[in-house]
Write a sequence for this structure.
């Protein structure tokens, strides 16, 4: 079985693999590309794979990671100060949050939805890719890559 052992920026991907947020944080897992080919994700350490990451396979090919649509809730906020305040409340609960222009996206959770409603906000349910912030101490976060290009 082919193995994906690291991320790359040097190989043009010939396939894609679509995974939800939970499946994108792995070290070792048997996967099937969207085109039907099986391979083994076999990274040296567990990591959060992001939308657009490219996995290098041991046969010289590459697979692009896609974020699968999943159930999410979104809170729209017009004011930057309000966005920061709500992000702080969610971060204080260690909740994975995706920050988008003028809104926050998170997994559905009735406790968090009640908290947000109590703060006067409206939560809207959607199906969308969920790609939350990886955190300040993560080895791979937005805007910084720890692999060669």
């Amino acid at each position: 079985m082919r193995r994906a052992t690291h991320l790359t920026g040097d190989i043009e991907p010939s396939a894609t693999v679509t995974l939800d947020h939970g499946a994108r944080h792995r070290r070792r897992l048997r996967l099937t590309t969207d085109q039907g080919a099986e391979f083994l994700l076999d990274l040296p350490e567990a990591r959060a794979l992001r939308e657009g990451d490219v996995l290098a396979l041991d046969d010289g090919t590459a697979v692009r990671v896609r974020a699968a649509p999943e159930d999410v809730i979104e809170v729209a906020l017009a004011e930057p100060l309000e966005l920061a305040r709500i992000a702080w409340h969610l971060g204080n609960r260690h909740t994975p949050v995706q920050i988008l222009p003028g809104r926050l996206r998170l997994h559905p959770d009735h406790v968090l939805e009640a908290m947000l409603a109590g703060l006067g906000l409206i939560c809207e349910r959607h199906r969308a890719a969920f790609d939350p912030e990886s955190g300040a101490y993560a080895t791979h976060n937005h805007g910084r890559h720890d692999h060669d290009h």
In short: The first strand starts at residue 3 and ends at 7. Residues 80-91 form the longest helix (12 residues). The chain has two domains: 3-67, 70-129. The chain is about 15% helix and 40% strand.
